[in-house]
Amino acid sequence: MKSQFDIIYRDIVNTIVEKGIWSEGNVRTKYADGTPAHYKSYIGYQFRLNNSTDEAHLITSRFAPSKAPIREIYWIWLLQSNNVDVLNNLGCKFWDEWRKEDGTIGKAYGYQIAKETFGQKSQLDYVINELKNNPNSRRIMTEIWIPNELHEMALTPCVHLTQWSVINGKLYLEVRQRSCDVALGLVANVFQYSVLHKLVALECGLEPAEIIWNIHNVHIYDRHYDKLVKQVNSETFEAPTLKINNFTSIYNFKPDDIEILNYQYGEKVNYEVAI
Fold first, then answer.
1. For the chain, what percentages of helix, strand and coil (3-state, to nearest 5) are there?
2. Where are the beta strands (DSSP E) in 111-224?
3. Which of 92, 158, 180, 204 is catalytic?
4. Backbone torsions φ then ψ of 210, nearest 5 degrees
5. Half-sphere exposure (Cβ direction) of 187: Cα atoms closer than 13 Å
6. pTM for the full model?
7. pLDDT per position as a tens digit, 175-218
8. Phi, psi angles (nearest 5°) of residue 84
9. In the structure, what pLDDT confidence band is assigned to residue 127 with cuts at 50, 70 and 90?
10. H helices of the chain, where?
11. 158 catalytic, yes or no?
């Protein structure tokens, strides 16, 4: 069966190509050589992804790394860390460009997940406790966009909110993303949150259902544009398979427990990071 995410991903790119608007004037983002990183963006995009099967939600139109995204989500949600050295020791370099002098990314991501919530030790503990003991709640959420601490973050969070709901034993996850780089960020984010969704479902004895993904500003950077349009119109392959090995508890999970089988993909394409 063709990858669901390939189809969704192509539709996102095509929407930006056909309906997006190029940025004007000064932009915050820059490439490593100091050149302003302009982008074409579309405002307000939602897609739904069926996460009830063993399909690994990785695009096949190009190679998409699977190990680094899982290491990052483990660092944020399970280790609840903001220390870049800890992430580097896991073999992930995603945050090197934003590392502060103290070796952290400031009060961002894992720092916020670690906060006590409604008497639970962390936001993750709150989600799991509610799903197990109060599954009809409409308040099972996490949020890491904290206004009075944004100035202490190396980068304000992109994926910032999750909401979890149970209907007839099925677990739905909604994700809210304020800003999304299609070439790089989206590919990693969707895969890692699909794995987190499955881990939480396993922990709570639920069946993972849909992921509902909302993006406010979805964009393609100028140096990515032509390559990305070519990429999504190239050959795609059957969806790879995801296995979670050795699961006993989400709290015992390790990144190497994730196994990707039968992953076929097109050419490797390199995209510059806009900082």
1. 35, 25, 40
2. 141-143, 159-167, 170-181, 207-221
3. 158
4. -90, 155
5. 22
6. 0.97
7. 999 999 999 999 999 999 999 999 999 999 999 999 999 999 99
8. -70, -30
9. very high
10. 4-19, 67-73, 84-89, 110-113, 123-133, 185-204, 225-232
11. yes
